[in-house]
Amino acid sequence: MAAHSNDPVGHLYDILAYQETVRTVQSWVDEANKAGWPTLMISVSDHETGGLALGRQLTEQYPVYAWYPEVLANATHSTAWLAKKISFSALPSQPISRQFIVDEILRDGLGIVDASDDEIDKLVSLGARQNVDYVLADMISRRAQLGWSTHGHSGVDVNLYSYPPELTKELFGNRENTEIGQFIVDTMNIDLDIVTRDLNRLAKSWHVTDEKHNPNMQHYHLKHYSVRRVLLTPYSQYINTHH
Fold first, then answer.
1. Is 101 within 8 Å of 118 (Cβ atoms)?
2. Which of these ranges, 6-15, 142-151, 177-186, 193-202, has the smallest mean pLDDT?
3. Within 10 Å of residue 149's Cβ, how many Cβ atoms?
4. Nearest to 167 by CA among 11, 26, 65, 21
5. Which is a Gene Ontology cellular component entry for this protein (predicted)?
């Protein structure tokens, strides 16, 4: 969710965690193939979020073609975490302490020691409001000269990773998203009619209807973890035997 907040700190550590995860899965794939179980890995996102760009132009003057990663290295927490800290520290009877913002949020949390009076005043005035997360993210993004085009999804092409190469040659190059699904279907010889039937066996509707029947699903990105549907049918039931 870091990209939705345009939070470069959280985004960076999400990427690093992803790299570690892929490395672990690669090792597992290698072991499975050595044991005689043909196994492959596909990794791709459903969309890009945020429209991240390097070399943000901050003034009307001709821009400097640079960005400053050390700014992100100085931060110790994501802006979402720091926004929560502000929220938990807020009291209805008194405003957020200016010194608390300067010391604990900006200096200790984001590594920012050159905040302007206007920036500090804005954070103090916002207090525990929801968009304080966005303000913190913009402060560190500006100092790193990182640009964002949206808090939503963008049309930027996403990377497609597959492994091992000898089993995933059909995915090389630029691919439409539907080709990835078809590759999985063909490789695993899955009968989609049976899968679709089982997935929708207990469904009340083909679409999200209302909050009464779909709790916590007013927007999927608010709670990615809201619904989990587990298939208990053995995988063998989905093998297409009509070929």
1. no
2. 193-202
3. 12
4. 26
5. fungal-type vacuole membrane
98 and 152 in contact (C-beta within 8 Å)? no
Token pair for 228: 């989990």
Distance in angstroms (rounded) separating the CA atoms of residues 138 and 123:
12
Residue with token string 């790299």: 19
Instruction: Read off the tokens for 95.
Output: 């405003």
- C-beta separation of 204 from 210 below 8 A: no
Q: Where are the domains of the chain?
A: 189-243
118, with CB counted inside 10 A (0-12, 13-18, 19+), is exposed
Distance CA 106, CA 120 (A): 9
- pTM for the complete prediction? 0.78
Give the whole-angstrom CA distance, residue 31 versus residue 33.
6
Tokens representing 144 are 């790193």
Q: What is the DSSP letter of 134?
A: H
**123 with 101: CB under 8 angstroms?**
yes
Q: How does pLDDT run across 145-171, given as a tens digit for each residue?
A: 999 999 999 999 999 999 999 999 999
